[in-house]
Amino acid sequence: MKLSGITCLDLSLFLPGPTVSQMMSDHGARVIKIESLGEGEPNRHIGQRRGDESVYFACTHRGKESLTLNLKAPEGLDVFMRLVQHADVILESFRPGVVKRLGVDYDAVRQVRPDIVYASISAYGQTGPLASDPAHDLSVEAMCGLLSNNVDDAGRPVMPGMPAGDMLAATLTLSGILMALLRRKETGEGDYLDVAMMDSILSCMPNSMGAVFADHMPPVPRNERIWGGAAFYRIYETKDGGHITLGGSEIKFARNALEALGRPDLVALCTLPPGEGQLPVVEFLSETFLTRTRAEWIEFFAPLDVCFAPVNDLRTGLDLAQTRHREMCLTDDSGREHLGTPLKFAAEPADIDFRAPAHGEHTRRILTELGYDDDGISALSGNGVV
């Protein structure tokens, strides 16, 4: 597999960091999760459970090893630095400054392993006036301006459907780590990667910067193509209280739909900029979609070349034939479902180990690999180090 032979020490918590290391694990990397001696990874205890394991934890920690370690103890720091000698990647997501206080920051680590690739994920980055502020995804989406465009019909911001800052930071961190590993192969040198969730969100909004850069004004969502200003890029309600979407504002799609609906005269309005000029089309479509049920509209649009999709719930989305075909919902031997990997290589596909580790499950084995004997391990355990 692509990352066979790569070892990652994962100090990160919650969602973005564990997502990065899980994608690495799915493709062959050895991932050693460093957990505190108390409750360990927080997402072990968040959300619905299957037996004694949270679904959240199972979806972010499969195929990893768990080592419990007290980094505040000198002996714990010694264990970590021994691990560093065999590692290629270190991943952390503490608030800026924490790893420095613990003695496991990049400068300290590269004294032991000069070619280490060290990645830090934080809300606002390691530097700047907001660097030390506590924040999770919602705060970051609000701070950078994204949430102001995620609004209801009254213009009020609503809760986002997915944690964009967390997940965009995760995917960009994975890309950065792989870039650094590729470069290391040529130069023999490691590097430090500083990824901010807010930076990640902003970098993924190039199609939202028109009014911001051209007019130096915030966008008005109802006048923007991707936020409902285009008649053919909107959510519409159906007769039975369901919802459908038109998701392609190209004129060919508008023409195909409006001709089928008996209103080709409205096609010209769809060439106007998003906003007030397209309101007659929006009003027509809104009224029209209320005349049939969601199922009837699915049948109506099936033969048409139009970007149409029903608004499915997440259970339905996972049960789609397309989702199953793409192996994005997998079932293990016990009948439990798991998310698949989106990275599908032809020659070296992922080899997914569905099992997530118990808290500290691999501690003894890893310490033995590092040269600790039974007495040494017992001493570490007795002193609250592991």
Molecular structure report:
By secondary structure, the protein is α/β, with parallel strands linked by helices. It has two domains: 7-203 and 356-382, Crotonobetainyl-coa:carnitine coa-transferase, domain 1 (Rossmann fold), CATH 3.40.50.10540; 233-318, formyl-coa transferase, domain 3, CATH 3.30.1540.10. It contains 16 helices and 13 strands. The strands form four sheets. The chain has a six-stranded parallel sheet. A three-stranded antiparallel sheet has the order 9-10-11, covered by helices on one side. A two-stranded antiparallel ribbon has the order 3-4. Strand 3 (49-50) and strand 4 (53-54) form a beta hairpin. The longest helix is centred in the middle third of the chain and has 24 residues, at 164-187. It is elongated and about 85 Å long. It starts with 6 loop residues before the first strand and ends with a helix. The model has no long low-confidence stretch (mean pLDDT 97).
How do the helices and strands follow one another from N- to C-terminus? EHEEEHEHEHHEHHEHHEEHHHEHHEEHH
Radius of gyration: 25 Å
Tally of individual helices: 16
The main sheet comes to:
6 strands, parallel
CATH hierarchy class name of the largest domain: Alpha Beta
The shape is elongated
